[in-house]
Write a structure and sequence with these properties.
The structure holds 2 protein chains of 2 kinds.
Chain A (H helix, E strand, L loop, with lengths): L5 H8 L18 E7 L3 H14 L4 E4 L15 E2 L6 H21 L10 E5 L2 H16 L5 E4 H7 L15 E5 L3 E2 L2 H14 L3 E3 L4 E7 L2 E7 L2 E10 L5 H7 L6 E11 L9 E4 L4 E5 L5 E11 L7 H14 L8 E12 L5 E4 L5 E5 L9 H14 L13 H4 L16
Parallel strand pairs in A: 1-2, 1-11, 2-8, 4-13, 11-18
Antiparallel strand pairs in A: 3-7, 4-6, 5-6, 9-10, 10-11, 12-15, 12-16, 13-14, 14-15, 17-18
Helix pairs in contact in A: 2-6, 2-9, 3-9
Chain B lengths: L2 E4 L3 E4 L4 E5 L13 H8 L8 E7 L7 E7 L5 E6 L6
Antiparallel strand pairs in B: 1-2, 3-4, 4-5, 5-6
Classes of the chains: A alpha/beta, B mainly beta.
């Protein structure tokens, strides 16, 4: 494969960029693979990449119903952070932060990782106390956290509403300076290109119809492009997990919900941080193109529609305008929706299942994008070694049975306030 | 926007309602020995399928009654609504 470099860019410019290699091939499925990953989103592609890179397993297929990067990896608000309080979440996410920092070099693909920092705003003394506690927990786990008072926040984001007599005055905030954003499509394409180069077959337009399970073991998968045998199969289909679980006679602690995001028209640089509203559920950042990228709550009812309704959008943007009044002057450019695996405790599942050779990666709720590298890395480990890694031990499926819930924020399938 | 026909009040906009999840989940009977798996199925596990779905809504900003709604999770089309004590047929 041609390396992406200045030298190759100049070389290919001489032939009008007509001779670049394809970033990935379009193979026909083989009869059998060592591992089949279902779902060609960020997590599935990353899993295949780390299976090849870390575990030397290259006889791998990714099968994807649509096209790679067409699901949630292309629909998120690109926020990357590790500002978690609980150890399981914090250590997992911070491991991911390390992978993010090296990703562009690792993949030979510019994922435009921009560690610009995230600020969670606080709107009461009590919230400042909980942020101090979370910040201290983060620092104990080696994650950078800075507690900001009102004046310090004002210096960093002067465009926020600092008037005295508002419903939710800004008391301060918790900042993780190393958090940031990345170009989400590039993450999918970068992983796909490298995985393909190491021998992984990326099979698009291939829908799973059923599974071949006998005597508690997985033997293969039936697809719209024929049967594929495999001793190990990994599910990475956040948003459609319940549909595939039904084919396996499994019922999971997951509901499928709708989450919307939107961007404004592009404006000149005004906001160089990711900021979240502390009195509701709203987050905002500015893309390199100048658009204000915004998101918030779930629509609040089970849905597979991948498109949302206006009441939720209106509710979310009301919060945005309360936080940064200048947003009311902007025109909306695009809105869209994606379907989320909402787990019952708000934390994901990366685990083995009761079926031998079947592995589960799901339940990412609002936070799937930032977890892409760590999820792929730990899922690849779980599949290759047939045992969970220490980093994803907390993301077990049976925690709902044993009571070891990972309730970071009390966010489950319910919206923030309903 | 969804328009939900409350069996008590008539057609109202979704803004007046809050969602309560799968309406077919039954609480295990009182006073009986319940396995952990039964509790799991009641508290956490959901089918959450694509397609027609019986679900609970509460007419929170209206009559405050819980109702059952038969809705398609892929198209958001609503076929039928029932009072909370009416059996799903």
């Amino acid at each position: 494969m041609q390396k992406y470099s200045v030298f190759n860019l100049v070389k290919n410019a001489l032939s009008n960029h007509e001779n670049w290699d394809l970033a990935w091939k379009d193979p026909t499925p083989k009869e059998e693979y060592d591992v089949v990953i279902i779902g060609g989103g960020g997590h599935g592609l990353a899993t295949a990449y780390y299976l090849a890179k870390e575990h030397n397993i290259t006889n791998v297929a990714i099968i994807e119903k649509g096209w790679i990067g067409g699901g949630n990896v292309g629909r998120n608000t690109t926020i990357i952070r590790s500002n978690y309080m609980h150890d399981d979440n914090a250590l997992f996410s911070e491991f991911g932060m390390d992978l993010w920092r090296r990703m562009s070099q690792d993949l030979n693909y510019n994922v435009m990782f921009s560690p610009r920092g995230i600020i969670n705003l606080a709107h009461s003394d009590a919230q400042m106390n909980t942020y101090a506690r979370r910040g201290n927990s983060m620092r104990l786990n080696g994650i950078d956290a800075v507690l900001l008072n009102r004046e310090e926040v004002k210096e960093i984001i002067p465009m926020a509403d600092f008037s005295e007599n508002v419903r939710f005055p800004i008391f301060g905030g918790l900042m993780q300076p190393s958090a940031g954003t990345a170009r989400h499509d590039a993450v999918a394409w970068g992983y796909a290109r490298q995985a393909d180069d190491m021998g992984v077959d990326i099979i698009q337009n291939c829908e799973v119809i059923g599974f071949d399970v006998s005597a508690g073991k997985i033997n293969g998968v039936r697809t719209s492009r024929g049967d594929i045998k495999a001793k190990k199969i990994g599910l990475c289909v956040a948003g459609s997990t319940n549909i595939l679980a039904e084919k396996l006679n499994m019922t999971l602690p997951i509901e499928t919900h709708l989450l919307q995001a939107c961007v404004s028209e592009p404006v000149k640089p005004v906001l160089d941080k990711v900021v979240t509203f502390g009195a509701g559920h709203f987050y905002i950042s500015q893309s390199d193109k100048g658009e204000m990228v915004m998101g918030g709550d779930l629509d609040g009812y089970n849905s597979y529609a991948q498109r949302g309704n206006l009441p939720t959008l209106q509710h979310v943007l009301t919060e945005g305008i309360a936080m940064m009044p200048f947003l009311s002057k902007l025109k909306m450019l695009r809105t869209w929706g994606g379907i989320m695996d909402m787990s019952m405790d708000g934390s994901p599942i990366i685990d083995k299942t009761h079926i031998e050779g079947l592995y589960l990666n799901c339940g990412w709720c609002y936070g799937g994008f930032k977890a892409t590298p760590a999820s792929g890395w730990t899922f690849a480990h779980t599949i290759a070694q047939d045992r969970v890694h220490q980093l994803n031990a907390g993301y077990s499926l049976n925690r709902f049975n044993t009571g070891h819930l990972l309730d970071e924020k009390g966010l489950g399938t319910k919206t923030w306030i309903s | 926007m969804l328009h939900i026909k409350c069996p008590h009040c008539g057609m109202r906009s979704q803004n007046e309602f809050s969602y309560g999840g799968d309406a077919t989940v039954k609480r295990p009977e009182l006073g009986k020995e319940i396995s952990d798996q039964d509790w799991d199925n009641f508290v956490y596990n959901r089918k959450s399928l694509r397609g027609k779905h019986w679900e609970l809504w509460q007419h929170l900003s209206g009559c405050r009654q819980w109702i059952k709604v038969y809705r398609d999770t892929a198209t958001h089309e609503i076929f039928k609504t029932l009072k909370a004590n009416e059996e799903i047929s």
